[in-house]
TrEMBL record:
This is STAS/SEC14 domain-containing protein. The lineage of its organism: Bacteria, Pseudomonadati, Bacteroidota, Cytophagia, Cytophagales.
Length: 145
């Protein structure tokens, strides 16, 4: 697993919310970016196979083709099996990222993710992202008390 600078990415588990929260504080090259996803998976496994992630992309570009291919072909297929169920990911994206987030390539990515039991959703509002994750937890019967 790649190591990433702590001033470039923050990762925390919030037991009160039942969430893994990852925030990129700056852009990272693909090997380090892959390392952040591996770190999130390890944190999720360490915290009861947490399947609800809030990922803040607002300070880094929406992923390019190299990361998307790695995510699609190598990382995503492992997630549901590793965590014992589907992954629900709320991505926070800023208005400046809307063109990339709403592209045909991103729509295809979202459809492919559903095939491997990963359910990503894009949000501009953190409150809306949290509400979507909470609704998913309730549907899955794993909402924190």
């Amino acid at each position: 697993m790649s190591v990433f600078p702590s001033n470039a990415f923050s990762l925390e588990y919030r037991p009160d919310l039942g969430l893994i929260i990852g925030r990129w504080l700056q852009d990272l090259p693909p090997p380090e970016l892959q390392g952040t996803y591996e770190a999130m998976l390890a944190a999720a496994q360490a915290h009861g196979n947490c399947r609800f992630w809030l990922l803040d992309l607002r300070r880094r570009p929406v992923a390019g083709p190299d990361l998307n291919a790695w995510f699609r072909d190598q990382f995503s297929p492992r997630i549901a099996a590793a965590l014992g169920g589907p992954l629900f990911t709320a991505y926070l994206a800023g208005p400046h990222q809307r063109p990339a987030a709403e592209s045909d390539a991103m729509e295809l990515y979202f459809r492919r993710e559903a095939v491997v039991d990963a359910f990503p959703q894009l949000f501009e509002s953190e409150a809306e992202a949290m509400a979507w994750l909470r609704a998913g937890q309730e549907r899955e019967g794993v909402a924190p008390a």
